[in-house]
Amino acid sequence: MAIELIVYAAPLADGVGLAAPRPALDAIAGAGRILGERQQAVQLSLLAPAGWTCGDERDVRGFYRRAAVIATASEPGLEGGPSGRWHAALVACGWLLILGGGGSAAAVVGGLWLAAGYPLMRRRVRARRLDAVRRAAAGLAHALGEAPIEAREHAGLTRLREIAQDTSRPPAERYRHASAACGALGLGGLSELYEALGRGASPDIPWCSMATVEGDDGSVRQPA
Amino acid sequence: MELEAFVLPLPDRSLGVVIWDRVRRRGTASSLAVYAPGELSPGELSEVASALTRSVGEALGQGLTGRPGVATLAIWWIVAALAAVLLAARGLTLGPGYAWLALLAVGVTLPWGMGLRALRADSLARAARRIAVRAGEVAPIPGGDARTRERLLAVWQFARGQRGTFEEQLVGLERFCRDNMWPAIADVYADRRAAAGGEADRVQPRPHLGRRAPRRRLYAALEMRAWRLS
Q: pLDDT tens digits, residue range A48-76?
């Protein structure tokens, strides 16, 4: 029992490619937030066609790290509010009000807020936000370094392998066919990958191609 | 903690849904029982579990984690508003231009975007936190309750006889679930209908259809494969 982080081993014409479509990236980012709440067991589940086994774990772990970096790169910072020169100008304005307010209580209160109160609140919020992001990142880093990797058979990917490795068609056509089939196979996130490969372009989702070898029993695996 | 997930029919495909706002607590064991019209591969079960992780993580991200607490927010609003009013009143003695300048200068220091909406998001995050602290104990397994399975298959049987456009079919499915006392799933179809054409695989509020205030149903959703039932 563990939080499962999934990545797809998408069948290609000449092997398998690891891919992390948007939902998988969002799940990795979500897992980071969950781990920031409380450290828990994590498992790296590699969804793959039937018979595919993961050989060298270093490449897979490296890909998970890359996906985690992309997934968490968009973590929001402190939204809104003046920053940089504007913030400095407000603080200076606060000091001017305190020093040159002419003994007016309103000017002193306003000045104190701008010179001290607001910067203090802002610092507290930033510290809390950074702490949350740091805890999530630490949780993910720990998990990705040590979590077990397991290949899990996915019925849709098994069907995609038949399409992608159908030698009666040229590779570009196979990819176009695979892209069209993704939706009905419950793999809509991979459609973009195959569509780009069919065009001969580089996909926008994180992916990497892995070489594979066929075992004596007919199973396909990555070379150790 | 016992969670339930359902693979529901959609025109030409299916929708995996994990409802996580109502969690049954029986003993110490945790599980995610997945009910589907047929056997799911281990990878598909992992996808359902991953959808739950994504949804709970997103809800956590919307909350006040890393934002000021409710008390700090209240102090912030009160003190900054007081400073703005006092300075504006003082500025008014010099002329309306100075009053506007004072309001603008202090107004930008107010925590805009961290008001009531943030508090509502925080209540969502609190619900998510209850699941998050035990998320690592939840393993997806095929659902074993015969009655629930029968209920799901009835929806699938109804879906098979459906005709018409995508939206009409969703309306039919929603009505069928409401007539059969399954409001949670009817709400899912209502959300799906509201978001038809857009992405609906996130936590979403139910559209306000009646006079009663809409209750927010919390669930994770993912599109799954098409099923051919005999």
A: 999 888 777 888 999 999 999 998 886 65
**Contacts of B140 by beta carbon, 8 Å cutoff, 6+ apart:** B5, B32, B34, B45, B46, B48, B49
Cα angle B166, B153, B34; round to 5? 95
Report field, pTM of the whole predicted structure over 0.95: no
Distances in Å between the alpha carbon of B42 and those of A177, A186, A208, B31? Answer: 25, 14, 23, 15
Minimal CA separation from B121 to chain A, in Å = 15
How far apart are the C-alpha atoms of A135 and A69, rounded to whole Å?
A: 14
Residue B47 in contact with residue B123, Cβ under 8 Å? no
CA gap B73, B11 in Å, rounded = 46
Distance, in Å, from the CA atom of A196 to the CA atom of A187, rounded to the nearest integer, reads 15
Nearest CA in chain A to B111: A81
The Cα–Cα gap between A35 and A3 comes to 9
pLDDT of A194-222, one tens digit each? 999 999 998 999 999 886 544 455 555 54
Distance from CA of A188 to the nearest CA of B (A): 8
Per-residue pLDDT of A168-198, as tens digits, reads 999 999 999 999 999 999 999 999 999 999 9
